[in-house]
Design a protein that fits this description.
The protein has 4 helices and 8 strands; from the N terminus they run H-E-E-H-E-E-E-E-H-H-E-E.
């Protein structure tokens, strides 16, 4: 198991982040996702992605699309709006909050079935655990952010799926891993501005 980390050029990352911001600003006023044609061809490739919104250190929304069923730029536009308005864990983001919101994007590799959990690299791999119609996903940066070891990461992913923390040990539980290219408005600031 070795999912390849998808990598975008810095200019493509900045374009995607700017598109996510424009989409949020436009949607808050017009209630429509704006049409666009990205400059970078990589943004037109099909890819799964997650958009995370933070206000300072506070999480304000995180929604993603795992399967690569649409061009990356469209996936990010849809996920940005969903993260702002449809993440049921939080009150919807208000238009007045947008200047304080930082956008983070994770571009996902294809999912790969995990046969041996020991092959999972904490901080490099994200996980999706599923069983009986329940599914939970955690991005690679979550485990690194909290300093989790492998068993804690697996247990927390099971909890996210509303499964017992040790469900990952059950042969009826599917464990899939993926890699992600993670970047944010803070990490992609253009030094010339």
């Amino acid at each position: 198991m070795n999912p390849a980390v998808p990598r975008l050029e810095d200019s493509a990352r900045r374009e995607l982040l700017a598109l996510a911001r424009r989409t949020l600003e436009s949607y808050m006023v017009e209630r429509e996702i704006p049409l666009c044609i990205p400059n970078h061809s990589a943004l037109k490739e099909r890819a799964g992605a997650f958009v995370t919104l933070r206000r300072g250190t506070e999480l304000r929304g995180c929604i993603g699309q795992v399967l690569p069923d649409a061009p990356l730029f469209l996936t990010v536009q849809r996920c940005a709006v969903s993260a702002a308005l449809e993440d049921t864990r939080f009150a919807p983001v208000a238009a007045e909050e947008l200047p304080e919101i930082t956008i983070e994007i994770s571009v996902l590799s294809q999912l790969e079935r995990v046969r041996d959990p020991a092959a999972i690299e904490v901080g490099r791999h994200g996980l999706m655990v599923s069983r009986g119609g329940r599914r939970g996903l955690l991005l690679p940066q979550v485990a690194a952010e909290y300093g989790w070891d492998l068993e804690t990461f697996l247990a927390q992913t099971c909890r996210k799926a509303r499964l017992p923390p040790d469900a990952w040990r059950d042969s009826g539980t599917a464990i899939e891993a993926f890699a992600a290219d993670f970047f944010s408005e803070e990490s992609c600031r253009d030094p010339t501005h």
